[in-house]
Write a structure and sequence with these properties.
The protein has 191 residues and is an alpha+beta fold. The protein is built from five helices and 13 strands. A six-stranded mixed β-sheet has the order 1-3-4-8-12-11, with helices on one face. Strands 6-7-13-9-10 form a five-stranded antiparallel β-sheet. A two-stranded antiparallel sheet has the order 2-5. Strand 11 and strand 12 form a beta hairpin. Helix 3 runs parallel beside helix 4. It is elongated, with a radius of gyration of 27 Å.
Amino acid sequence: MRNSAKKLASAILALAMTAAMSVTAYAADYGMAPVPTTTASESTPATTEELTSAVESAKGGAVANVQVATTVGLTVKPTVLKELAQKADGVLEIVAPKATISIDASTITKARNVNLSMKVTNTKSRTVINMASKKDFGCEVKVTLTSCKLSAEKLENAHWYFNGKDMGPVELDDDGNPVVTLTKGGKIEIK
């Protein structure tokens, strides 16, 4: 009886180990190659390499266009700005979900770290952009709000405010989107 109990216990243990290993193999999905679900630029801000590559490929005054899913942690390094400045008629354009950010090479006076991290809040009565940086950019940064909830009628009479100071009527692009041009970070309101 003892031998049969040992054999039964061994069989149950072997069955349990096989089941555990198959669950582990299933969870690891060894039979399939991993497939990435997003690209780096879809989940993180553009890297310096992506920005540099875009600037290098934009020859003869073309627009260097980079798509990002967020502006959180978005910084343009001095090396990117130096490369852009060498293309005197080039433009770096960073397209995010709520805004398009542009830097024209002709406006660069000093290549430095430009922190473009921002939070955009939209309502039907105002749009607020809170920039993470309050520092001077060393260039002009044009921010076009592509998801502004203010009506076209309100935007016609809207002013923009930088750190509480009235900067005058807001500029509108050809599509009716508000555009602000900044030389340093801060709080921008359009109302």
